[in-house]
Design goal:
homodimer; 439 residues; alpha/beta; Rossmann fold; Arc Repressor Mutant, subunit A; 9-stranded mixed beta sheet; two-stranded antiparallel sheet; 10% strand; elongated
């Protein structure tokens, strides 16, 4: 096996550096590990044609195919053979590179597959560079980053809901327990320019979810994200940060020490290799991982055009529960949350209990008693007759049943019945001259 | 015609005092006016049996029946005759006095109707007092209050959606235009213990709705209600206050001057005769009139058990659009609004435009572009390729198409296409050494 002209020993050595030390993981062929690492740098996040190709042929064969400049017709034939052999294979949509609007189409003919592959090859070839792969693997080994593959037990299975847009591999640093906690995690995301209100509710939400046994997922940005991670750490909870660049370069740099603490107690994850810079495109694609990896997404504060709405959109598209925390309508930083509630059916959540309920942990629902008012006498529910007789009673002047009947507009029988209940509650008392109100 | 032993002249005189001076109203028989006035004091608001009886026999005959102590069997037979003669009559539910839980039942047999009438007679008889009727009519004439009947052109037709629970008559003071504006009104209700935030949004909402041509309906309470009325008046808008007691006694007394101003420029309305005191029961029943008379109900601030939720419940039950304004989740005064949004499908409304949309005045919907972020370059929508090429451009170092292709993970063709668009936008510029980012 050679790849990029590297000999087998070199490939094995480089692969082992990012796969060693993980108990319970299958010993993947070094070539496949190396090829996945290469692919994570060749295809931009969310490249559906790359996803389809690698899923069909394996990363190693797929890499060989583009290194050796096989024709789209030859590659297409191989892919179609594999798909034909898999009767249970999902209904894959070809040509679904989300980055190329002009090639986006539902296609299931050979010609359309070949066209998608041709476009893909033109995207991938400029990046075929063994030096980049080697450098990223060496850098990963240096910072104790590990490459996680979809066959690993710690792979967050819900990410596969992204289908051909799922990441080809994930780079991560941290403790294994953080990856294991992802199925029971909730994403808290929001504005970078958070208000004091936003930071307060992020802290309460994160700590409250940790108390309820959830891990907290976010994007390590300033504002809401940072506060969500910080509060989770402060509560000794699990927290996972998904990054838009390599896990060796913490972004934003002002969160360097926070991210270091997350690595020590939780995990940072990226689909981009070490050395990769975060770009706007990668932030948008990173958001799909946050939505897919967590059991629910909650937007805590977001402007009208906030990037958090992008994460919310992914969560909705994946059928994940979506919550939004309301805020003052006078705060532009809450406008995005209200928009999600109003136009996108996000659930209005106001405390950690309601957030936990999003993933099915329902608390007891207390029926809404519309007949009570602000100044109501408290928790004792009253019948309509009791309300009217209580209205008619005086605390000072004892009133007869006949008088109460006239005042309350009720028959004497109904008044007597209501007085019985009020008497039991301690709300009415009979004296010699008649009934008086108590309480 | 005698009633309570009063002669015809006296009845006509008393009736004329509360019916005179209204142009365009039909000259109702004085006896019917007098009897409606009497009924408004005999039956408590929302008494469905009284509603059925008066609707079937007319107020005058119905009053004679109870004054002369006709038997429930006799009255029931008359009612059933009328209903049988009306093939288009609604499917009336008997025995539906909402104030008597124990008699509440779907009933359509003679026995059940008679039972409901028997219970009704027991409620009404203690209040048969000609002195009360005369005093309330005299007091009404003194304060220029008028009696509005369901046959009047100014009667708010939507109130009839309350069916047998509709008011038997409405007492009101103010300008006729205020009644005419009710079909185009929106109710703004909320907490008495409003916060500064709540008062601010009530003011903005009321003024904004007036600007859009709506009348503002509310309950004249302290807090949100008062601010809604005040802002409507300040904007030279129409406003109508529904009261829980007689229109001659303004409640709360602290709103005496506000209510005086409402009478001068709008209207106050009550189903209770002059002299009647507001009671808890009457506040709850008053809320059904607010919900029924306005085209939509919006709760601006409300505690978890606020009386405003009662109004909201009536609006929902009547199929009226219901809106709620969110607020800080840290404010107990917004908990009721969040609850309405979360559990009772209230629409989350954050400005007067959205409030107006509740009644069908829809503004243009701007589709939500999930691919934009906080720091996005503004209003120009970009294709995915453009986003990625823009990411890859530098403002200082010119880059070749090949370089951009590698950096963006796009084919050179796609890069050239994207650069074309960015060039047109002014976001990219070609120099001798390659392309640079602008903006």
């Amino acid at each position: 096996m050679t790849m990029f002209g590297l000999d087998e020993t070199r490939v094995s050595e480089l692969s082992a550096g990012v796969r060693g030390g993980m108990p319970g993981e299958p010993p993947e062929a070094a070539g496949e590990v190396f090829a996945r690492a290469a692919w994570s740098g060749i295809a931009e996040p969310g490249d559906g044609t790359a996803g389809l190709l690698v899923a069909s042929l394996g990363a190693s064969v797929a890499l060989t195919a583009i290194l050796e400049a096989w024709s789209p017709v030859r590659i297409g034939a191989l892919v179609r053979d594999v798909l034909a052999d898999e009767p249970g294979a999902p209904d894959v949509v070809f040509a679904t590179n989300p980055s190329s609007d002009h090639t986006e189409a539902d296609a299931d003919t050979s010609a359309e597959l070949e066209q998608a592959l041709d476009a893909g090859l033109q995207r991938w070839r400029p990046r075929l560079n063994s030096g980049d792969v080697i450098r990223s693997l060496q850098q990963a080994a240096r910072v104790d980053a590990r490459l996680l593959l979809a066959t690993d037990t710690l792979w967050p299975a819900t990410i596969d809901d992204l289908e051909q847009h799922a990441p080809l591999a994930l780079w991560w640093r941290g403790v294994p327990g953080a990856l294991a906690a992802l199925p029971n995690s909730i994403a808290l995301v929001g504005a970078r320019a958070a208000t004091g209100y936003g930071e307060h509710i992020a802290m309460e939400a994160s700590a409250g979810l940790v108390d309820r046994g959830f891990a907290v997922v976010s994007g390590a940005a300033y504002g809401i994200d940072g506060m969500a991670h910080r509060a989770a750490l402060a509560s000794d909870g699990m927290t996972v940060a998904f990054l838009a660049g390599g896990v060796d370069r913490f972004y934003p740099s002002g969160h360097d020490s926070l991210l270091t603490r997350i690595v020590a107690a939780g995990a940072v994850i990226s689909e981009l290799p070490c050395g990769a810079a975060p770009t706007k495109w990668r932030f948008l694609q990173r958001n799909r991982l946050i939505a897919a990896a967590s059991a629910a997404t909650i937007v805590l504060e977001a402007g009208w055009r906030s990037g958090s709405l992008n994460t919310a959109g992914h969560a909705s598209a994946l059928g994940r529960p979506l919550g939004a925390v309301p805020g003052p309508i006078t705060s532009p930083t809450s406008a995005g949350c209200h928009r999600l509630i109003r136009e996108f059916a996000a659930v209005c959540v106001t405390n950690p209990t309601e957030m936990a309920e999003l993933v099915g942990e329902r608390s007891v629902q207390v029926p809404l008693d519309f007949s009570d008012t602000d100044t109501g006498p408290g928790p004792i529910p009253r019948t309509s007759d009791q309300v009217r007789v209580f209205d008619a009673l005086s605390a000072r002047s004892p009133r007869t049943v006949a008088d109460l009947s006239r005042r309350a507009g009720l028959s004497t029988t109904a008044v007597r019945g209501a007085l019985g209940g009020l008497d039991l509650d301690g709300a009415a008392q009979e004296r010699e001259a008649g009934w008086v109100r108590r309480l």
